Amino acid sequence: MLRLWFDPREVRKEGEPPDYRFSLANERTFLAWIRTGLALVAGGLACAQFLPPLPVAHLREVIAAALLLLGAVVALRAVDHWARSERAMRLKRDLPASVFPAVLAVGVALGALGLAVVVVVQVFR
């Protein structure tokens, strides 16, 4: 599967070409995920550089590292989903199902709730 990531000719060896509109839509979805990954990386760098020290030791660095790692995972997941979707379209199969968007959403929500707790605790100190 990794060859599909780096050599588009590998994708074209199987099946038949789908309607180009579907391939372009797949590419737009890929680019949207890449933008999400870049936003997470930018947020991680912003936390590391601009967030003042927090009352919990090293919390700022943990937040920054978590955002940077999540950005990397999103970018890798984007290319994997693009390749698997392109292959499925060429083979006239159902598009691959993914729980990743739900896992990402729950992870972000839990992270936001955790930070909200830290902020509220800090206010009442």
UniProtKB/TrEMBL annotation:
Cross-referenced Pfam families: DUF202 (PF02656)
Keyword terms: Cell membrane, Membrane, Transmembrane, Transmembrane helix
Subcellular localization, as worded in the UniProt entry: Cell membrane
UniProt entry tagged with the keyword Magnesium: no
Domain DUF202: 21-88
Its membrane topology: Multi-pass membrane protein
Gene Ontology CC terms, in alphabetical order: plasma membrane
Name this protein carries in UniProt: Membrane protein
Organism: Spirilliplanes yamanashiensis
InterPro entries per the UniProt record, alphabetical: DUF202, IM_YidH-like
Transmembrane segments: 30-51, 57-79, 99-124
